[in-house]
Amino acid sequence: MTQHLNHFIAGKSVEGSGARIELIDPVTEQVYASSARGTAADVERAVAAAHAQLEGGAWSQLDGAQRGRLLTKLADLVERDSEQLADMDANAIGRSPMEPRRMDLPNAIANLRAAAGWANQLEGRTIPTGGYFGSKTLSYTVREPVGVVGAIVPWNSPLMITVWKLAALLAAGCTVVIKPSEETPQSALHLAALAQEAGFPDGVINVVTGYGAEVGKALCEHPQVAKISFTGSPEAGREIQRTAGVLFKQVALELGGKSPQIVFDDASFEDAVRGCALGLFANQGQVCAAGSRILVQRNLAERFGAALAEAAQAVQVGDPREDGVQMGPVAKKTQFERVNRYIQLGIDQGATLAAGGVSTPERGWFVRPTIFTNARNDMAIAQEEIFGPVGTLIVFDTEAEAIALANDSAYGLAATVWTGNLVRAHRVAAAIKAGAVGINCWSPLDANLPWGGVKTSGIGREGGFSGALAYTEEKVITVLLPS
Ligand code: NAD
Hints:
This protein is α/β, with parallel strands linked by helices. It has two domains: about 5-255 and about 455-475, Aldehyde Dehydrogenase, Chain A, domain 1, CATH 3.40.605; about 260-440, Aldehyde Dehydrogenase, Chain A, domain 2. The protein is about 40% helix and about 20% strand. The chain has 15 helices and 21 strands. It has helices at about 40-55, 65-80, 80-95, 100-120, 160-170, 185-200, 210-220, 235-245, 270-280, 300-315, 335-350, 380-385, 400-405, 420-430, 465-470; strands at about 5, 5-10, 10-15, 20-25, 30-35, 125, 135-145, 150, 175-180, 205, 225-230, 250-255, 260-265, 295, 350-355, 370-375, 390-395, 415-420, 435-440, 460, 470-480. The chain has a seven-stranded mixed β-sheet, with helices on both faces. A six-stranded mixed β-sheet has the order 10-9-8-11-12-20, with helices on both faces. Helix 2 runs antiparallel to helix 4 (about 100-120) and helix 2 crosses helix 6. The chain starts with a strand and ends with a strand. It binds nicotinamide-adenine-dinucleotide. Nicotinamide-adenine-dinucleotide binds near residues 155, 182, 217 and 413.
C-alpha cells in the first residue's frame, strides 16, 4: 500500500484536481507514496485562506506574545514527533536517519523556540526629525507583517528549511502557502497538521504540493502573495526573479554554493581532515554549504589528499536504514546522472582521481564518495555545484593566493578557514566574499545566526533576528505637534 498525500488548505486535507505525483524510494527505486499534483486553482484556494487570516481573521488579532506562545507549542509538538519527522525526510531522499535526527530536527526545534521570542521583539523606532514647515513633529516606525508568503522549498533538508521560513514569518505575523519539493512533501504536511494541533487558526499555514513550474509559478504570479521566500537552485531562482520580481513582490533567494575550505599548513591536520570530510559527505554532499572546493597549502597537499581519499574510501555506502551504513544513495535519478557526469568531466579535464569514480550500481542511485586532487580552479568540478559527494583539491602557495582562489567563484555562500594562526584566520575570514565563514569548523548552523549568500548564492538572510525582520515592512508614522 502506498501512502496517499493531499494538500493541506485552510486546516483541511484537500485532494485537489486528482492528478498525482509518484514518490520513488532512492534505495529500491520503488514507488512508496503519491502526492497531489497541485494546480493554480489549489494555489488560489490556499492564498485566499492565508489572505483572509490577515484581513481581520483570528490570526490578525493576535499580538506578538500570543503568536510566540503558539510557536512554543508547535516547537513542543515537533519535538514530540521529531524521530518520525527525521525518518520521513531521511527515507524520502535515502539519507541516513541519524543525520536529520542529530542535526536538522534539533535545529528546527531551536528555530521555532527562538522565533517564539522574536515575535514579541519586533519593535519600531522613534526618530528625531527636522519638523514640518516650522512645526515640531513626532515620527516613529512600526514593524508590520509583509503579508502572505509563498515559501518554496528544496528536497535536501526539507523540514529544517521549511521551519527556517515558517518560524520567522509566523513570528512576524505573516501567513503562508508552503510549496515543498515534489520529491519530499511529507514532513511539510505533517508540520502543518502539528500547527493545527498547536492551535494556529485554519488558513495561517497551508501546503500545496506539486511541481515548481505549476504550483511554484502560480505562487510567484499570485497578486495576493507579497513575498516569495525561495531555497533551491540558481536556475529556478533566476526564473522566480523573472516572475515575482517584475510584479514587485519581495523575493528572498537562498541558492547554491561551491564553498571553499582553505587548509593552511599550520592547521590541526586531523581536525581539518575530519571537518573537510564532513563538509563533503554529510547528506551525500547534497548540502548547499558543502565544502566541495578544498584549497590546500602546497607542502601539505599530498598528505592531505591521501588522507581525504582514505576518508572517502572508509565511508560505508548502502541502504541507510541498515546499521553501520553511513551514506545512502543520492536523492533521485537526475541527481545520480548529474553527479556521475561531473565525475567523468573531472577525469576528462585532467584532475587526478584519488578515490571513488563513476558509479554503475545494479539498483538504487548510489554514487561512490569521490576525491579529485591536482585540480585547477577553472575546471568545471571546481566552479559548478555538483550537489553530490565529490571533493576537488586545489593547491595554493600563499595566503593571498588562497583568498584569490576562494573568491574566484560565481558563488558566495559559505567558507571555512583551517589554521592554528587566529590572526590569519580573522584576516582571511574578512577577505572572503561569502555569507558565512567558519574558522576551524565547517558550516556551524544555529537558530540565532543569520544564514544566506552573496553573488549567485542568493539575496537576503534567514535565521536569527535578521530572519524575523525580513518578514516585516517598516512603516513610518509622523504626527504634527501643535506649538
Ligand atoms: P530546485 O531549484 O530544482 O527546486 C527547489 C524548489 O523550487 C522545489 O520546490 C521546486 O519545485 C521549485 N521550483 C523549481 N522551479 C521553479 C520555478 N520556476 N518557479 C517556482 N518554483 C520552482 O532545487 P533542488 O534541486 O530542490 O535543491 C537543490 C538546490 O538548492 C541546490 O542548488 C542547493 O545548493 C540549493 N539549496 C540552497 C540552500 C541555502 O540555504 N542556500 C539550502 C538547501 C539547498
